[in-house]
Amino acid sequence: MTPLQLLLPFLSLPFFLLCGATTSNQIPKHHVIYMGSSLSNGNGRVLGAEDAAESAYLQMLSSIIPSHEIERISIIHKYNHAFRGFSAMLTETEASILSGHDDVVSIFPDSILELHTTRSWDFLEAESGRLPSNKYQRGLSSDVIIGMIDTGIWPESSSFNDEGIGAVPSRWKGVCMEGSDFRKSNCNRKLIGARYYNVPWTRDGNQSSLARTKGSPRDSVGHGTHTASTAAGVQVLNASYYGLAQGTARGGLPSARIACYKACSDVGCSGATILKAIDDAIRDGVDIISISIGMSSLFQSDYLNDPIAIGAFHAEQMGVMVICSGGNDGPDPYTIVNTAPWIFTVAASNIDRDFQSNIVLGNGKNFTGSAINFSDLTRSRTYPLVFGKDVAAYYTPVSEARNCYPGSLDPKKVVGKIVVCVDDDPAVSRKIKKLVVEDAKAKGLILIDEAEKSVPFDSGIFPYTEVGNIAGFQILQYINSTKNPTATILPTVDVPRYRPAPAVAYFSSRGPAELTENILKVIFLSLAAMFLG
């Protein structure tokens, strides 16, 4: 075949497509340059000065980045303690050239990873035959240090009170970084360290920039505070969720110390930044690293391009256990993430308690629903009951009205009534459905949702509950069987000794792993099943 014949298929393509592809490849994006194990002396200290390593990294960048783009010859993150490497802004062409360097193991674009109880731990211990003991009393401190890589921490939480805890272990080498809303005094003998990072983000799909997180380790999302208290929160008496599930809240090891590494924001987590946090945590002296974060189950990378797998591998080599969440993309198979053999992967489960908001129909039938609502409705009064498709706005497709799409319901037909919606289309979340019905001045919402019925949704004071397909079918049958169907939705009650439990949560990702099908390793723990747990 002649060179011209080879070019013919490409010459037939639109010119703007060819130019667009070329231009896209030349847009600098944040990349991780991974260079393997660090040169340490056995004590975790890197031999040689860090500035020498940085100089070598800058020289590598200078050899491939044009001189007129000198501002890009800079390092965003350096990895010098448990492993070697750095991150920088590179085009695809530059990354391809640099990948041939003798010292480079792999180069990959920075990925944006996703953020993946009072009775949980006592229940799990009882199920395993272990009973709570005095070791959980606040007066007994521990030198175990857990590094939490997440969205930060809210230090004023009672879960991080250091009353009765001994001095900070002398081997601790970490810091407590200050910020506009975080002081060194926010750290204590329980929360012994806190760091935050600058996070690179891709904006508008055509350029990357270094965006500063709010200059503070403080948690503005809540995820990091939740995971930290779940792992090691001290005992907090009379804890409840607005009166629900009252009891003594504590973490899995209340005597452990906590070190916070804020590597995430409300829009996700930079893989390059997570690598930096892992590197820092190992140098600081943590014993365990907890990461409730992961890549999308749809776009899993091999281990040489997975930042958590790389960081966890070197942590394990340094004697630091890494515990990761398995993901929230269940119940389909092959959805589990963080599956590298050297990672302790954790699933979500239920415990022996449920939150129920029951439905009473006008014909006297009762149905058990799942929700958290604090409404003031009672059994003594019922309200007109309608199906979403029967109260659709003009020119609205039936499929949208039955799913309670925004703008799909006629407020005049909805006001004062309890609306039944289904979840045929996952494009609209149950939170949006609730807001649509509430905004139309409805009296309440019954959602038929088989997938999410086991994960109670908090609707505040708005009457709301969820049922599965079987109960939902019977409710719709009732609506069609009478001219004036009515119902009421009762406020939530917590139900103790609920069975079966423990059972893997419906939303929790399932194996086997795509990369290691022969390794079955998930442990069913209630680390993230419910925010109350």
From TrEMBL:
Residues annotated as signal peptide: 1-24
Source organism superkingdom: Eukaryota
Keyword NAD: no
Record keywords, A-Z: Signal
Gene Ontology terms describing biological process: proteolysis
InterPro entries in the cross-refs: Peptidase_S8/S53_dom, Peptidase_S8/S53_dom_sf, Peptidases_S8_3, S8pro/Inhibitor_I9, S8pro/Inhibitor_I9_sf, SBT
PROSITE patterns membership: SUBTILASE (PS51892)
Gene3D superfamilies cross-referenced by the UniProt entry: Peptidase S8 propeptide/proteinase inhibitor I9, Peptidase S8/S53 domain
Locations listed in the record: Secreted
Zinc-finger is among the record's keywords: no
GO molecular function annotations of the record: serine-type endopeptidase activity
Alphabetical list of Pfam families matching this protein: Inhibitor_I9 (PF05922), Peptidase_S8 (PF00082)
Region (Disordered): 206-226
Domain Inhibitor I9 as annotated: residue spans: 31-116
Residue span, Peptidase S8/S53 domain: 142-513
GO cellular component term, pick one: extracellular region
Similarity-based family: Belongs to the peptidase S8 family.
Protein name: Subtilisin-like serine endopeptidase family protein
Organism: Prunus dulcis (Almond)
Lineage of the organism: Eukaryota, Viridiplantae, Streptophyta, Embryophyta, Tracheophyta
